[in-house]
Amino acid sequence: MTQARHQSFIASHLIGGLLAICVFPVYLAVVGQPSLVSALVFVWFLSPIAIALFLSRTGRLAAAHFISAANLAGLVTVSAGLTGGLTSFLIPWMIVVPLEAALSSDRRVVLSAIVIALLGLVLLGLGTALDLLPTAPVFALDPAVLTLLGSLSAIAYAGGLAISVQIIHRGSEQVIRAGERRYRLLAENATDMITRHDARGDVLFASIASRQILGAPPDDLFGKGLFERVHVADRPAYLNALSRCAGGHAAVSAEFRVKRRPAGSGTLSDGPAEYGWVEMRCRPIVRNRLSGAGARAADEVVAVTRDITERKAQEAEVLRARDEAESASRAKTQFLANMSHELRTPLNAIIGFSEILNRELYGRLGEDRYRDYARLIQESGEHLLSVVNGILDMSKIEAGKFTIVVEPFDVADLVQSSCELMRHGAEQRSVSLETDVAAGLPELVADKRVCKQMLLNLLSNAIKFTEAEGRITVGARRTGELIEIVVADDGIGIADEDLAKLGKPFVQAESSYDRSYEGAGLGLSVVKGLARLHGGELDLQSELGRGTTATIRLPVVCKPVEGRSGEPPSTADNVLRLAETGTG
């Protein structure tokens, strides 16, 4: 439509300029040789061509119409002043000035054109009254004929303007009807239901998709029809969404249940009603916008509603499956905890009594093989007890029942005591164990027993996976607000594809049945869980064949995760004392 207006304006002004050129020979034949003023006025008649060029270069239609109105009014005023003033045969052309401005569809341009035309008439009246106008030339034609020609030309031009206005108006109507057909086609063929609501939430329009979603024709939803189909418990959400959208000038979405008519029934009362889930997304329509505190509420709200019953069913199924998985996980954790407690009791007795036999506390066994058997029983029992303790610790961590009791302690002492405990095992495998603790470390506020357990687990792994003549370095340093305890070895290392799996319960880098190293795959997972309970983390860096570096990062002042309770595992010495007293 804008293109059509521009084309009409440019065409009319080019035609006007060309007509002026065509009329010039007639003017010469009628009037004769023109004066200087008459020649300047004639050149002025060619100005519409320049105005058309201005619009074609700038695209500013309103400005072009204003310039054209002022130009035409000035041209008619000057020409009429030279040809008789108010009695000039060119006066009817003043009516053309506001008519031409009407093509701009801009009220300000039309009002300006009216003012300019009236101003031109006032100037002509003053010039006539004060005798300021030049003497009108004597034309060869009769004045009545000139008046007739002036009126006919003005009427012809005004008629052309009227036809242009009609053409533009007809084009606008066609565009509007095409838009209505296009949007109605979209609304009637969309699978989502489109509704329009007034400021109170009443439905003003509903698309035909209501039959698919609600089983009801659009007319049944008008007014309160849609509201009455919303589930009673979900009506506040429905009304709140419309209210927030209308008042907040922002898109709002809501999910609620609606009553749907069963297929084949006439009304909701013809059969048992069923409810389905829908999602409504609504946007505001504000025709008169204000800014600041005086912002108006939306005049209307347009909503798009789609059926999400199937999605809700899938979500419910996912939640049910998740609950079942969590329940199974809790049952597994509880089973492991109970099993660990049940296994520890006989294992403690086995270890304690085998140690009594091995030490020959109540006399010699009489055969060296018995002593070897007792030692093997004790070692096997201790190994199995460590596995059971690891399972118990892991189950406590997963169940959230592990106690963290913080206290300040010296990190260097922790490293030194842990290395002393593991040094004998390292020497048996011909592995050197060194320490590298930075000076001036602050006291670490954490659970000392748990930190020692984590460090012993890492040292045990490092000794297990380091070949003879290898070296293990245990260090500690401060990095910002963290204390880092590092266990680095030059052992067999871990492949990249296995590194990401470590730290999960019962997962080992070498998981085949004929693997070379013992263990249940719980050590790193326990360390990882215990570090997390302190608000820290375990970081593993390794390269296959080059060694592994395990780093425990803990805050200087640890804040244990809340809701943890539990007890530390018992020791074999307690079992021995129970055995010696004849209890258990």
> Could you tell me the radius of gyration in angstroms?
49 Å
Structural class: alpha+beta
Which percent range fits the helix content? 40-55%
What is the average of the pLDDT values?
Answer: 79
Helix and strand sequence: HHHHHHHEEHHHEEEHHEHEEHEEHHEEH
- For the secondary structure, the number of strands is 12
Structural domains: how many: 4
Tally of separate helices: 17
Biggest β-sheet, characterized? 5 strands, antiparallel
Outline: elongated
Q: Unreliable runs, pLDDT <50, ≥5 residues? A: 290-294, 509-521, 563-584
Strand order of the largest sheet: 2-1-5-4-3
As a percent range, the share of strand residues is 5-15%
Give the N-terminus to C-terminus distance in angstroms.
100 Å
Give an overview of the whole structure.
The protein is of the alpha+beta class and 584 residues long. It folds into four domains: 179 residues; 111 residues, 2-Layer Sandwich (Beta-Lactamase); 111 residues; 153 residues, Histidine kinase-like ATPase, C-terminal domain (Heat Shock Protein 90, 2-Layer Sandwich). The protein is 54% helix and 14% strand. The strands form three sheets. A five-stranded antiparallel beta sheet has the order 2-1-5-4-3, sandwiched between helices. A five-stranded mixed beta sheet has the order 7-9-10-12-11, covered by helices on one side. A two-stranded antiparallel sheet has the order 6-8. A hairpin with a 2-residue loop joins strand 9 and strand 10. The longest helix is centred in the middle third of the chain and has 51 residues.
